[in-house]
Amino acid sequence: MTVIATEGLSKRFPRVTALDRLSLDIAPGVTGLVGANGAGKSTLIKILLGLSPASEGKAAVLGLDVASEGGAIRERVGYMPEHDCLPPDVSATEFVVHMARMSGLPPSAARERTADTLRHVGLYEERYRPIGGYSTGMKQRVKLAQALVHDPQLVLLDEPTNGLDPVGRDEMLGLIRRVHTDFGISVLVTSHLLGELERTCDHVVVIDGGKLLRSSSTDDFTQATASLAVEVTDSDAHPDGTAALRKALEGAGIAVATVEREADGSPTSTRVLFVEVTGDPTYDAVRDAVAGLGLGLVRMEQRRHRIAEVFRTDSATADPSPGARPQPSPSQPAAGEPTPRSAAPHSPAHQHPAQQDAARQHQEGGSGDVA
Ligand SMILES: Nc1ncnc2c1ncn2[C@@H]1O[C@H](COP(=O)(O)OP(=O)(O)OP(=O)(O)O)[C@@H](O)[C@H]1O
Prior knowledge:
Elements: E1 4-12, E2 17-26, E3 30-34, H1 41-48, E4 56-61, E5 64-65, H2 70-76, E6 77-80, H3 92-102, H4 107-120, H5 136-148, E7 154-157, H6 166-183, E8 186-191, H7 194-200, E9 203-208, E10 211-217, H8 218-223, E11 226-232, H9 241-251, E12 256-257, E13 272-276, H10 280-293, E14 297-304, H11 307-310, H12 315-318, H13 353-363
Parallel strand pairs: 3-8, 3-9, 6-7, 7-8
Antiparallel strand pairs: 1-2, 1-4, 4-5, 9-10, 11-13, 11-14, 12-13
Helix pairs in contact: 3-4, 4-5, 6-7, 9-10
The chain binds adenosine-5'-triphosphate.
Region (Disordered): 310-371
Pfam family, one: ABC_tran
Domain ABC transporter: 4-234
């Protein structure tokens, strides 16, 4: 069963093609739609809601045609817009009741559902205060509440973590996850931050320049490749145990890197080696090399690749066709990802746009979790 299906969907504005022959099948659950600013995420949502006609192709939401059944879609779907659109002078309760009534709920049901929904998003205590005095996080929660109040089957959330600090973002992502686990509502959530979708979504769709780059389960994204963090002690025979191990592993044809920074930007110990895992023999080779050198093994930890790493090769830009699956290269750094010391600086010109965006966020200290 699919909740959203598009086929050859295009949207052309006079000066820009916002969506370019996009074909997607999205199953129930929590799906992340990721792309840099201008990738076409909001345009897709507006088409799916039946609010903006496509230039070409077709799309269906919950089996309903977006071109002819927009009203029926909006009855069954909740929408959280990206930008601030809340009236400052009314309370959350007044606003959400109004939105419930607009969705067709009778007055008493609208009030009941409003109270339940505001409780779910953690605004119950504050519900009678005017929205104008709310923090950004509280406003985002009001927007989420109005999307949920009419008990939709699907919600489309456009950049719900925008403007939130890391704690607020985590709370919002937790709420979004619970929208599905507690109420069985399917979610399509957009973000330009790859890392945050990885924790929240069952499935991730990546678009760039209106084209589909990749659509697959989060597990496929993150488990496709893996590395091993290895830390060893020094010994009298090997005063720099890390260097000795590195030499031994590289001599055995195993790719090894050290990194300067963790995903959250904090400096990493140069004593940690990141070893590319190509299969079970890699573990044996590390163990044997450590034992052979007579070093103590402090840490040997499986480290899953993160979504941003999947987009670190030039092939991401070279083959943007549907289903294209850029393969990570052990020799190149990911966006916002620890940079192997041995690697040449990675030119932004060669980065995938989503990657550049993620890297910029990272540099700005925006998310700290882009890779
Ligand atoms: N009404 C419009 N008229 C002209 N161009 C538009 C219009 N709406 C969107 N665009 C353009 O279409 C492209 C896709 O925009 P869209 O808002 O869908 O991107 P997005 O992925 O949601 O990014 P953002 O998060 O920055 O909103 C952009 O180049 C944008 O400038």
